[in-house]
Here is the input.
Amino acid sequence: MPPLYTPQMPKGEYLQYGGQAIIEGVMMRSPRFFAVACRAPNGDIVLETEALEKTWIGRQKWLKYPFLRGSLALIDAMALGVKAMRFASNVQMDPAYQKKPEGDGPHVVEKPMDKRVQDIAIGGTIVVSFAMALFIFNYLPNLIAQPLQQRGASGTLINFATEIVKVIFFIGYIWLIGQMKDIQEVFKYHGAEHKAINAMEAERPLSIENCAAQTRLHPRCGTSFAIIVLIVSMVIFTFVPRYPFSNGQPTFYLRDVTTRFLLELMILPIISGISYELIRFAGKFRNSRFVMGLFWPGLMSQYLTTREPDEKQIEVALVALRAVVEAEEDGTPLEDEPPSNAIESASPAPIGL
Here is the structure.
Protein backbone atom coordinates (compact mmCIF):
# COMPACT_ATOMS: atom_id res chain seq x y z
CA MET A 1 0.00 0.00 0.00
CA PRO A 2 1.18 3.58 -0.64
CA PRO A 3 2.44 5.50 2.42
CA LEU A 4 -0.14 7.25 4.56
CA TYR A 5 -0.56 10.99 4.28
CA THR A 6 -3.12 13.64 5.03
CA PRO A 7 -4.41 15.12 1.75
CA GLN A 8 -4.91 18.84 1.45
CA MET A 9 -8.55 19.46 0.61
CA PRO A 10 -9.27 22.58 -1.47
CA LYS A 11 -10.83 25.16 0.85
CA GLY A 12 -12.58 27.26 -1.77
CA GLU A 13 -14.78 24.51 -3.19
CA TYR A 14 -16.37 21.51 -1.54
CA LEU A 15 -17.48 19.59 -4.62
CA GLN A 16 -14.06 18.36 -5.66
CA TYR A 17 -13.94 14.62 -5.05
CA GLY A 18 -16.60 11.98 -5.53
CA GLY A 19 -17.09 8.50 -6.85
CA GLN A 20 -19.23 5.51 -7.69
CA ALA A 21 -19.27 1.87 -6.70
CA ILE A 22 -18.77 -0.63 -9.51
CA ILE A 23 -18.33 -4.39 -9.84
CA GLU A 24 -15.76 -5.39 -7.21
CA GLY A 25 -14.42 -1.86 -7.07
CA VAL A 26 -14.72 1.89 -6.87
CA MET A 27 -14.38 4.76 -9.33
CA MET A 28 -13.11 8.03 -7.85
CA ARG A 29 -12.92 11.38 -9.58
CA SER A 30 -11.33 14.73 -8.88
CA PRO A 31 -11.65 17.99 -10.82
CA ARG A 32 -9.24 16.82 -13.53
CA PHE A 33 -8.78 13.06 -13.17
CA PHE A 34 -10.64 9.86 -12.50
CA ALA A 35 -9.36 6.49 -11.30
CA VAL A 36 -10.87 3.03 -11.28
CA ALA A 37 -9.68 0.40 -8.81
CA CYS A 38 -11.18 -3.07 -8.69
CA ARG A 39 -10.38 -6.35 -6.99
CA ALA A 40 -9.53 -9.02 -9.57
CA PRO A 41 -10.48 -12.69 -9.04
CA ASN A 42 -6.86 -13.48 -8.12
CA GLY A 43 -6.85 -10.85 -5.35
CA ASP A 44 -4.86 -8.14 -7.13
CA ILE A 45 -6.16 -4.57 -7.17
CA VAL A 46 -6.20 -3.39 -10.76
CA LEU A 47 -5.90 0.38 -11.10
CA GLU A 48 -6.19 2.83 -13.96
CA THR A 49 -5.99 6.62 -13.76
CA GLU A 50 -6.89 8.95 -16.60
CA ALA A 51 -7.32 12.65 -17.16
CA LEU A 52 -10.91 13.74 -17.69
CA GLU A 53 -11.41 14.39 -21.37
CA LYS A 54 -12.96 17.68 -22.44
CA THR A 55 -16.05 16.36 -24.15
CA TRP A 56 -18.54 18.45 -26.10
CA ILE A 57 -20.70 18.74 -22.97
CA GLY A 58 -17.72 19.80 -20.92
CA ARG A 59 -16.99 22.63 -23.37
CA GLN A 60 -20.46 24.12 -22.99
CA LYS A 61 -19.74 26.80 -20.39
CA TRP A 62 -23.40 27.81 -20.14
CA LEU A 63 -24.13 24.36 -18.67
CA LYS A 64 -21.86 25.09 -15.71
CA TYR A 65 -23.91 27.92 -14.26
CA PRO A 66 -26.09 27.42 -11.17
CA PHE A 67 -29.41 25.65 -11.82
CA LEU A 68 -28.09 24.42 -15.19
CA ARG A 69 -25.18 22.30 -14.00
CA GLY A 70 -27.42 19.71 -12.31
CA SER A 71 -28.27 18.02 -15.60
CA LEU A 72 -24.62 18.17 -16.66
CA ALA A 73 -23.55 16.56 -13.38
CA LEU A 74 -25.98 13.68 -13.91
CA ILE A 75 -24.83 13.02 -17.49
CA ASP A 76 -21.20 13.37 -16.47
CA ALA A 77 -21.59 10.87 -13.61
CA MET A 78 -23.39 8.38 -15.85
CA ALA A 79 -20.75 8.61 -18.60
CA LEU A 80 -17.89 7.97 -16.19
CA GLY A 81 -19.89 5.25 -14.47
CA VAL A 82 -20.48 3.37 -17.71
CA LYS A 83 -16.80 3.61 -18.62
CA ALA A 84 -15.75 2.40 -15.17
CA MET A 85 -18.23 -0.49 -15.25
CA ARG A 86 -16.90 -1.64 -18.61
CA PHE A 87 -13.35 -1.54 -17.27
CA ALA A 88 -14.30 -3.52 -14.15
CA SER A 89 -16.15 -6.13 -16.21
CA ASN A 90 -13.12 -6.60 -18.45
CA VAL A 91 -10.89 -7.12 -15.41
CA GLN A 92 -13.21 -9.78 -14.00
CA MET A 93 -13.15 -11.69 -17.30
CA ASP A 94 -9.48 -11.20 -18.17
CA PRO A 95 -7.65 -14.57 -18.03
CA ALA A 96 -4.52 -12.80 -16.76
CA TYR A 97 -6.29 -12.07 -13.43
CA GLN A 98 -7.99 -15.40 -12.84
CA LYS A 99 -5.24 -17.35 -11.09
CA LYS A 100 -2.69 -16.11 -8.59
CA PRO A 101 0.91 -17.41 -8.76
CA GLU A 102 1.91 -19.28 -5.60
CA GLY A 103 3.83 -17.30 -3.00
CA ASP A 104 2.98 -13.93 -4.49
CA GLY A 105 0.72 -11.76 -2.33
CA PRO A 106 -1.94 -9.36 -3.65
CA HIS A 107 -0.62 -6.11 -5.03
CA VAL A 108 -1.72 -3.11 -7.08
CA VAL A 109 -1.45 -3.57 -10.84
CA GLU A 110 -1.79 -0.63 -13.20
CA LYS A 111 -3.74 -1.44 -16.33
CA PRO A 112 -4.60 0.96 -19.18
CA MET A 113 -8.26 1.29 -20.04
CA ASP A 114 -9.46 -0.32 -23.23
CA LYS A 115 -9.34 2.48 -25.77
CA ARG A 116 -11.98 0.64 -27.77
CA VAL A 117 -14.55 1.94 -25.32
CA GLN A 118 -15.84 4.60 -27.67
CA ASP A 119 -17.90 7.66 -26.78
CA ILE A 120 -20.68 6.47 -29.09
CA ALA A 121 -21.04 3.22 -27.11
CA ILE A 122 -21.14 5.11 -23.82
CA GLY A 123 -23.61 7.60 -25.26
CA GLY A 124 -25.85 4.79 -26.48
CA THR A 125 -25.87 3.17 -23.05
CA ILE A 126 -26.78 6.47 -21.40
CA VAL A 127 -29.64 7.09 -23.85
CA VAL A 128 -31.09 3.61 -23.27
CA SER A 129 -30.72 3.96 -19.49
CA PHE A 130 -32.44 7.36 -19.50
CA ALA A 131 -35.26 6.05 -21.67
CA MET A 132 -35.90 3.08 -19.37
CA ALA A 133 -35.73 5.23 -16.24
CA LEU A 134 -38.12 7.81 -17.67
CA PHE A 135 -40.61 5.12 -18.66
CA ILE A 136 -40.52 3.31 -15.31
CA PHE A 137 -40.29 6.28 -12.97
CA ASN A 138 -42.24 8.91 -14.92
CA TYR A 139 -44.51 7.61 -17.68
CA LEU A 140 -45.75 4.52 -15.83
CA PRO A 141 -46.72 6.41 -12.62
CA ASN A 142 -48.72 8.87 -14.72
CA LEU A 143 -50.37 5.95 -16.48
CA ILE A 144 -51.33 4.37 -13.15
CA ALA A 145 -52.68 7.58 -11.58
CA GLN A 146 -54.69 8.83 -14.57
CA PRO A 147 -57.75 6.55 -13.91
CA LEU A 148 -58.44 8.65 -10.80
CA GLN A 149 -59.91 11.19 -13.21
CA GLN A 150 -62.79 8.79 -13.87
CA ARG A 151 -63.57 8.86 -10.15
CA GLY A 152 -63.89 12.63 -10.18
CA ALA A 153 -60.42 13.46 -8.86
CA SER A 154 -59.03 16.88 -9.71
CA GLY A 155 -55.91 17.34 -11.80
CA THR A 156 -53.98 18.44 -8.71
CA LEU A 157 -54.96 15.28 -6.82
CA ILE A 158 -53.98 13.11 -9.79
CA ASN A 159 -50.63 14.88 -9.94
CA PHE A 160 -50.02 14.28 -6.24
CA ALA A 161 -50.96 10.61 -6.57
CA THR A 162 -48.52 10.32 -9.47
CA GLU A 163 -45.68 11.66 -7.33
CA ILE A 164 -46.53 9.21 -4.54
CA VAL A 165 -46.35 6.34 -7.05
CA LYS A 166 -42.94 7.60 -8.21
CA VAL A 167 -41.61 7.50 -4.65
CA ILE A 168 -43.02 3.99 -4.10
CA PHE A 169 -41.49 2.78 -7.37
CA PHE A 170 -38.08 4.24 -6.57
CA ILE A 171 -37.86 2.98 -2.99
CA GLY A 172 -39.27 -0.38 -4.05
CA TYR A 173 -36.74 -0.68 -6.87
CA ILE A 174 -33.80 0.05 -4.57
CA TRP A 175 -35.08 -2.36 -1.93
CA LEU A 176 -35.72 -5.10 -4.51
CA ILE A 177 -32.29 -5.01 -6.15
CA GLY A 178 -30.75 -4.74 -2.70
CA GLN A 179 -31.90 -8.31 -2.03
CA MET A 180 -29.57 -9.62 -4.74
CA LYS A 181 -26.26 -10.96 -3.44
CA ASP A 182 -24.17 -9.37 -6.21
CA ILE A 183 -25.79 -5.96 -5.68
CA GLN A 184 -25.19 -6.22 -1.93
CA GLU A 185 -21.48 -6.53 -2.70
CA VAL A 186 -21.66 -3.40 -4.86
CA PHE A 187 -23.43 -1.62 -2.00
CA LYS A 188 -20.51 -2.55 0.29
CA TYR A 189 -18.14 -0.85 -2.12
CA HIS A 190 -20.53 2.11 -2.10
CA GLY A 191 -20.14 2.25 1.68
CA ALA A 192 -16.35 2.00 1.32
CA GLU A 193 -16.35 4.88 -1.16
CA HIS A 194 -18.32 7.07 1.25
CA LYS A 195 -16.03 6.21 4.15
CA ALA A 196 -12.93 7.09 2.13
CA ILE A 197 -14.37 10.45 1.03
CA ASN A 198 -15.50 11.20 4.60
CA ALA A 199 -12.02 10.46 5.96
CA MET A 200 -10.48 12.77 3.38
CA GLU A 201 -12.89 15.62 4.09
CA ALA A 202 -12.22 15.17 7.81
CA GLU A 203 -8.52 15.65 6.95
CA ARG A 204 -7.61 12.27 8.40
CA PRO A 205 -4.72 10.15 7.09
CA LEU A 206 -6.06 7.77 4.45
CA SER A 207 -5.65 4.53 6.37
CA ILE A 208 -8.02 1.59 6.54
CA GLU A 209 -8.54 2.18 10.26
CA ASN A 210 -9.44 5.86 9.84
CA CYS A 211 -11.83 5.09 6.99
CA ALA A 212 -13.52 2.26 8.86
CA ALA A 213 -14.29 4.65 11.71
CA GLN A 214 -16.22 6.99 9.39
CA THR A 215 -19.93 6.85 8.68
CA ARG A 216 -21.07 5.21 5.47
CA LEU A 217 -23.51 8.08 4.86
CA HIS A 218 -22.64 11.20 2.90
CA PRO A 219 -24.79 14.31 2.26
CA ARG A 220 -23.76 14.55 -1.39
CA CYS A 221 -24.56 10.95 -2.26
CA GLY A 222 -26.31 10.33 -5.56
CA THR A 223 -29.06 8.50 -3.69
CA SER A 224 -29.71 11.67 -1.69
CA PHE A 225 -29.76 13.58 -4.97
CA ALA A 226 -32.46 11.24 -6.28
CA ILE A 227 -34.55 11.65 -3.13
CA ILE A 228 -34.26 15.44 -3.33
CA VAL A 229 -35.35 15.26 -6.99
CA LEU A 230 -38.41 13.27 -5.93
CA ILE A 231 -39.28 15.77 -3.18
CA VAL A 232 -38.80 18.82 -5.40
CA SER A 233 -40.80 17.09 -8.14
CA MET A 234 -43.65 16.49 -5.71
CA VAL A 235 -43.73 20.16 -4.76
CA ILE A 236 -43.57 21.45 -8.34
CA PHE A 237 -45.40 18.84 -10.42
CA THR A 238 -48.36 18.64 -8.05
CA PHE A 239 -49.32 22.22 -8.87
CA VAL A 240 -48.49 22.24 -12.58
CA PRO A 241 -51.85 22.09 -14.43
CA ARG A 242 -52.48 18.54 -15.59
CA TYR A 243 -54.39 19.53 -18.73
CA PRO A 244 -52.75 22.82 -19.77
CA PHE A 245 -53.56 22.48 -23.48
CA SER A 246 -57.25 21.55 -23.28
CA ASN A 247 -58.78 24.33 -21.18
CA GLY A 248 -58.21 22.32 -18.02
CA GLN A 249 -60.35 19.39 -19.22
CA PRO A 250 -59.24 15.80 -19.90
CA THR A 251 -59.41 14.62 -23.51
CA PHE A 252 -58.21 11.12 -24.37
CA TYR A 253 -56.63 8.76 -21.82
CA LEU A 254 -53.30 7.94 -23.48
CA ARG A 255 -53.07 11.41 -25.03
CA ASP A 256 -53.39 13.01 -21.59
CA VAL A 257 -50.76 10.69 -20.11
CA THR A 258 -48.34 11.26 -22.97
CA THR A 259 -48.86 15.02 -22.92
CA ARG A 260 -48.27 15.09 -19.17
CA PHE A 261 -45.11 12.97 -19.58
CA LEU A 262 -43.69 15.33 -22.21
CA LEU A 263 -44.54 18.36 -20.06
CA GLU A 264 -42.74 16.87 -17.06
CA LEU A 265 -39.81 15.96 -19.30
CA MET A 266 -39.39 19.63 -20.25
CA ILE A 267 -39.48 20.73 -16.61
CA LEU A 268 -37.19 17.96 -15.34
CA PRO A 269 -33.89 19.81 -16.09
CA ILE A 270 -35.09 22.70 -13.93
CA ILE A 271 -35.90 20.30 -11.10
CA SER A 272 -32.49 18.63 -11.49
CA GLY A 273 -30.83 22.04 -11.32
CA ILE A 274 -32.68 23.02 -8.14
CA SER A 275 -31.95 19.64 -6.53
CA TYR A 276 -28.27 19.83 -7.39
CA GLU A 277 -27.91 23.27 -5.80
CA LEU A 278 -29.62 21.93 -2.68
CA ILE A 279 -27.16 19.03 -2.56
CA ARG A 280 -24.26 21.48 -2.87
CA PHE A 281 -25.75 23.49 -0.02
CA ALA A 282 -26.01 20.35 2.13
CA GLY A 283 -22.38 19.48 1.44
CA LYS A 284 -21.16 22.95 2.33
CA PHE A 285 -23.00 22.95 5.65
CA ARG A 286 -22.69 19.27 6.46
CA ASN A 287 -21.62 20.08 10.03
CA SER A 288 -24.88 21.91 10.73
CA ARG A 289 -27.41 19.74 12.53
CA PHE A 290 -30.23 21.93 11.28
CA VAL A 291 -29.20 21.53 7.64
CA MET A 292 -28.64 17.79 8.03
CA GLY A 293 -32.07 17.57 9.61
CA LEU A 294 -33.60 19.10 6.51
CA PHE A 295 -31.84 16.52 4.34
CA TRP A 296 -32.67 13.63 6.68
CA PRO A 297 -34.75 11.69 4.08
CA GLY A 298 -31.81 11.61 1.65
CA LEU A 299 -29.39 10.46 4.34
CA MET A 300 -31.72 7.71 5.55
CA SER A 301 -32.21 6.44 1.99
CA GLN A 302 -28.49 5.61 1.91
CA TYR A 303 -29.08 2.78 4.36
CA LEU A 304 -30.73 1.06 1.38
CA THR A 305 -27.88 1.66 -1.07
CA THR A 306 -24.85 1.15 1.20
CA ARG A 307 -23.62 -1.71 3.36
CA GLU A 308 -20.81 -1.80 5.92
CA PRO A 309 -17.65 -2.69 3.97
CA ASP A 310 -14.81 -4.94 5.09
CA GLU A 311 -11.14 -3.96 5.10
CA LYS A 312 -10.49 -5.35 1.62
CA GLN A 313 -13.24 -3.20 0.13
CA ILE A 314 -12.01 -0.10 1.96
CA GLU A 315 -8.52 -0.87 0.66
CA VAL A 316 -9.81 -0.76 -2.93
CA ALA A 317 -11.58 2.56 -2.33
CA LEU A 318 -8.40 4.03 -0.86
CA VAL A 319 -6.32 2.93 -3.84
CA ALA A 320 -8.68 4.77 -6.19
CA LEU A 321 -8.88 7.88 -4.00
CA ARG A 322 -5.12 8.10 -3.50
CA ALA A 323 -4.66 7.78 -7.26
CA VAL A 324 -6.72 10.88 -8.08
CA VAL A 325 -5.29 12.85 -5.16
CA GLU A 326 -1.75 12.11 -6.30
CA ALA A 327 -2.68 12.88 -9.91
CA GLU A 328 -4.01 16.28 -8.83
CA GLU A 329 -0.88 17.00 -6.79
CA ASP A 330 1.43 16.01 -9.65
CA GLY A 331 -0.67 17.37 -12.52
CA THR A 332 0.06 20.58 -14.37
CA PRO A 333 -2.32 23.55 -13.95
CA LEU A 334 -5.22 23.73 -16.37
CA GLU A 335 -5.74 26.67 -18.67
CA ASP A 336 -9.23 27.15 -17.30
CA GLU A 337 -10.51 26.60 -13.78
CA PRO A 338 -12.01 23.10 -13.72
CA PRO A 339 -15.80 22.98 -13.37
CA SER A 340 -17.17 21.56 -10.15
CA ASN A 341 -19.90 19.49 -11.72
CA ALA A 342 -19.47 16.10 -10.07
CA ILE A 343 -22.06 14.68 -7.74
CA GLU A 344 -20.01 13.82 -4.71
CA SER A 345 -20.15 10.20 -3.60
CA ALA A 346 -22.60 9.32 -6.33
CA SER A 347 -24.80 6.19 -6.00
CA PRO A 348 -23.66 2.86 -7.43
CA ALA A 349 -24.00 2.45 -11.15
CA PRO A 350 -26.52 -0.43 -10.94
CA ILE A 351 -29.07 2.00 -9.47
CA GLY A 352 -28.91 3.99 -12.67
CA LEU A 353 -28.71 7.43 -11.06
Summary: Residues 68 and 81 are 21 Å apart (CA to CA). Residues 10-14, 332-353 have pLDDT under 50 and may be disordered.
